[in-house]
Amino acid sequence: MHGFAEDFGAVLGRQVTSVPEEVETWNETYVDPALAEFPHTAEHIKTLARLIGGGGYRGVTDQLETLLGRAPKTVRWALQNHPRIQKLATGRVAERSNRGHEGGDEM
Q1: I want to staple 73 with a disulfide (CB 3.0 to 4.6 A). Which of 5, 26, 31, 77 is the partner?
Q2: How many CB atoms sit inside 10 A of residue 76's CB?
Q3: CA nearest 49: which of 36, 72, 32?
Q4: In this structure, are residues 4 and 78 in contact, taking their beta carbons and an 8 Å threshold?
Q5: Which pTM does this prediction carry?
Q6: Alpha-helix runs per DSSP H in 1-107
Q7: Helix 2-12 and helix 83-99: axis angle, to 10°?
Q8: From first to last of its 107 residues, what are the pLDDT tens digits of the chain?
Q9: How far apart are alpha carbons 92 and 10 in whole angstroms?
């Protein structure tokens, strides 16, 4: 998860820290409310969270690249090309420029 925090931080232009959370707490806080109307999908996402949280899916293969015929995009690429994330990043840069603030933000 630290890699995701680094990717978000790089795109947003500020420090982002990964804070470990118990998988079931995360599922109850984020998945259950967001997918209450889609229980099958919610169970699928919660199962993936449990697997990943327990150390599953750590291996890397070339299967996706073979299927796509090209290297897959990265999380950072997705963040850099997501309109809402770009709006946040652009607003953050403008806000810093207006304040004359340099350096990272306190969290």
Answers
A1: 77
A2: 15
A3: 32
A4: no
A5: 0.60
A6: 2-12, 23-26, 32-34, 39-53, 63-68, 75-80, 83-99
A7: 60
A8: 668 899 999 999 989 998 889 999 999 999 999 999 999 999 999 999 999 888 887 778 899 999 999 999 998 999 999 998 888 888 765 555 555 544 444 33
A9: 12
